[in-house]
Sequence to fold (87 residues):
Amino acid sequence: MAGYFKLVDAHDDGFRVKLTAPDGTLVAVSTFYASKEEAIAGIELIREIAGTGPVVDHSRVESSEQDELFVGLQGTSGRDTGARRDA
Fold:
């Protein structure tokens, strides 16, 4: 089974989207959406960004090994994703 998007009620009468891993682990929670239509559009945007968006690292470099892991993200999809390190 693949991970999935879960549309849930937000505390302030809107909606949020939860991205859940195949094992049920919560991976991410979206911003607030005022309507289901907006939430569904948000899911479509997340899908597009996740498949094509570059990785931009704004974190500190703690070791050369961790920096090499970041460089490895560039090739995970079999193409150049435009991953870069911004200061």
